[in-house]
Specification:
The protein has about 400 residues and is an alpha+beta fold. The chain contains ten helices and 23 strands. Bound molecules: flavin-adenine dinucleotide (FAD).
Length: about 400
């Protein structure tokens, strides 16, 4: 049995960031990742908000992301209505358009330079903890012993379930199919609203000119179609996507060759505790919500930064174990607020005319300076602060 200071289950954005933070602090850390490589089927997150760029800047790696993405004003409370943060007191008074597969590749490259061991194509299936450590059990029958185990294993987190941590919240009220496909016919690109809700078609390759998205010609199309009723939890098929497109656009534009078809919902849940003894949770394992506003990856990366130095201090015996409890105390309220704001934003997306009137009202408010500053600070993560106490 191999012994590590920390084992991380899951090498998505949160697990990678946490591993980097721990390695920088000299902690012996390993990631166990189910995927055989860092390749990500599907694009998922569309980029970074200002606070996440600041965090990467603190580690000297912001330029790696900035050089590959599209700098733009992206903090939005209502989709398509970006709130300008160019007058905010930060070096990074903007966001960055960059798909999650690139974000993960860059993070994995950094973590690789820090010589973190990543056990790829391996899966954690359970764990047992005692007073001195945790044994993480792997699907191949082996186990890894560590002082601490961190579940960065996504919304369906096995670590959270095995730790018996409650995941209270709200069931989905809406769902959408999301996919990357080729189309035989030229689609109508952009956002469309109808009595089902909001839908969008866009190319993966784009540039931003004067605040407007300009799609490059050709290449796969990223499809998002809202469904009439929250869809079943199983994996959707090309046929489901075709039917979804026909229901909205009257045609499926001859879709073929999908590289990703998935479904997301506005299910909203948060772990009741971020720590159970020597087991901790971070990222989607600790909180799930609608992707509206683009806050999931940011919250996970920032969880990792809050937890990383604390776990390092405890493992290196510089601080007492009680320091770990400040991780829940500081980060649980941050994600709880993200849950609240995504629930509110999801309601504002509803297609009926009364909600449209409400959207107009909110939009008018957000054009005023003080509300713009307050909501932009929230959506970009720039207003997050922790009470320093006495
Ligand atoms: C359509 C869509 C759009 C989104 N857009 C945005 C956006 O614009 N901005 C934003 O900030 N967020 C966005 N998100 C959310 C973002 O994708 C997630 O919040 C982010 O991926 C969470 O990172 P994570 O590392 O916590 O979890 P994950 O990315 O889910 O990573 C978990 C990792 O753990 C691995 N794993 C799982 N179980 C095990 C196991 N038992 N053993 C070993 N490995 C395991 C998985 O293979 C995976 O690599 C979007 C999500 C979706 C679905």
């Amino acid at each position: 049995m191999t012994e590590r200071a920390v084992v991380i289950a899951g090498g998505g954005p949160t697990g990678l960031m946490l591993a980097g933070e721990l390695a920088l602090a000299g902690v012996d850390v390993a990631i166990v990742e189910r995927r055989p490589s860092q390749d990500l089927p599907g694009s998922r997150s569309g980029g970074l908000h200002s606070r996440t760029i600041e965090v990467f800047d603190m580690r000297g790696i912001a330029d790696r992301f900035l050089s590959e993405g599209t700098v733009a004003q992206v903090a939005a409370y209502l989709p398509g209505k970006a709130l300008d943060i160019s007058d905010f007191p930060t070096r990074h008074n903007y966001g960055l358009g960059l798909w999650q597969n690139h974000i993960e590749r860059i993070l994995a490259g950094w973590v690789g330079e820090l010589a973190v061991t990543i056990y790829r194509g391996r899966e954690v299936t359970g764990f047992a903890q005692d007073d001195t450590g945790v044994d993480a059990e792997l699907a191949d029958g082996q186990s890894l012993r560590a002082q601490y185990l961190v579940g960065c294993d996504g919304g369906r987190s096995l670590i959270r379930k095995a730790a018996g941590i409650e995941f209270p919240g709200w069931d989905p009220t809406t769902s959408a199919l999301i996919a990357e496909v080729e189309m035989a016919e030229e689609p109508e690109l952009g956002i469309r609203r109808d009595d089902l809700g909001v839908h969008s078609l866009g190319r993966l390759e784009y540039e931003i000119h004067d605040g407007e998205v300009v799609y490059m010609d050709g290449g796969p199309v990223r499809v998002m179609v809202t469904e009439r009723h929250p869809g079943p939890t199983g994996e959707p098929t090309l046929r489901d996507l075709s039917e979804g497109l026909i229901a909205v656009y009257g045609t499926d534009y001859g879709i073929h060759s999908p590289t990703w078809i998935s479904r997301f919902t506005d299910m909203t849940r948060q772990a009741a505790a971020y720590r159970e003894g020597r087991v901790l949770l971070a990222g989607d394992a600790a909180h799930v919500h609608s992707p509206v506003g683009g806050q999931g990856l940011q919250t996970g990366v920032q969880d990792a930064v809050n937890l990383g130095w604390k776990l390092a201090q405890v493992v290196n015996r510089t601080s007492p174990e009680s320091l770990l409890d400040t991780y829940h105390a500081e980060r649980h309220p941050v994600a709880a607020r993200v849950l609240r704001n995504t629930m509110a934003q999801t309601v504002l997306l509803r297609p009926d005319e009364r909600t449209e009137a409400l959207r107009d009202t909110v939009s008018e408010l957000l054009r005023m300076d003080e509300p713009r500053k307050r909501f932009a600070a929230m959506m970009s993560g720039l207003d997050i602060h922790y009470d320093p106490g006495e």
